Amino acid sequence: MSRILVVYHSQSGNTKAAAEAVARGASAVEGTEVEIKGGLEAATEDLLNCDGIAVGTPDYFSYMAGGLKDFFDRTYYPTQGQVTDKPCAIFVTHGGGGKAVESVKSICGSFKFRIVGEPVLVKNRPEGEAENQLLELGKALAKACTE
Ligand SMILES: Cc1cc2nc3c(=O)[nH]c(=O)nc-3n(C[C@H](O)[C@H](O)[C@H](O)COP(=O)(O)O)c2cc1C
């Protein structure tokens, strides 16, 4: 059984919906267990104990939301050297920009995660093709953890 952790921050629900779509995609892969947590509640042990992680944030002022940054800030030192090459999927919701994805990619590089696929950017609430992309991202992450 592989364990996927989905960590996100959301104020008005768009990124929460995106996180749930990623989780649904990952759950569809046999032998996968998924947990979703907010960035302010997810702990160091959650990161250490998962086989793969998906991180999601809205674009706030062209940067990631503070809730996700808080997770990264708290878990960086205690996990250094223990999460190298851990598969990681990235998703961002935005209102027409999306530059925040660069900040997430940069921090994931500091953790030395192995990025799975391309980050998925969604304008506002995910539906239709955007929702499919999130489902596929979750599936790709789960498959990367069973390889
Ligand atoms: C404080 C604030 C700042 C924002 N800044 C940006 C921005 O710089 N670029 C952008 O494309 N959208 C921006 N947005 C729009 C949000 O990224 C977008 O509505 C997002 O889907 C909200 O996600 P949430 O519902 O999960 O909170 C901003 C929204 C807020 C509340």
What brief labels describe this structure?
Rossmann fold, binds flavin mononucleotide, seven-stranded mixed beta sheet, globular, 147 residues, alpha/beta, 27% strand, 5 helices
Descriptive overview:
The protein has 147 residues and is α/β, with parallel strands linked by helices. It has one domain: Rossmann fold (3-Layer(aba) Sandwich). It is 44% helix and 27% strand. The chain is built from five helices and seven strands, in the order E-H-E-H-E-E-H-E-H-E-E-H. Strands 1, 2, 3, 4, 5, 6 and 7 form a seven-stranded mixed β-sheet that branches. Helix 1 (14-27) packs across helix 5 (128-146). The longest helix is centred in the last third of the chain and has 19 residues, at 128-146. The protein is globular, with a radius of gyration of 13 Å. The mean pLDDT is 98. The chain binds flavin mononucleotide. Flavin mononucleotide binds at residues 10-16, 58-62, 93-98, 124.
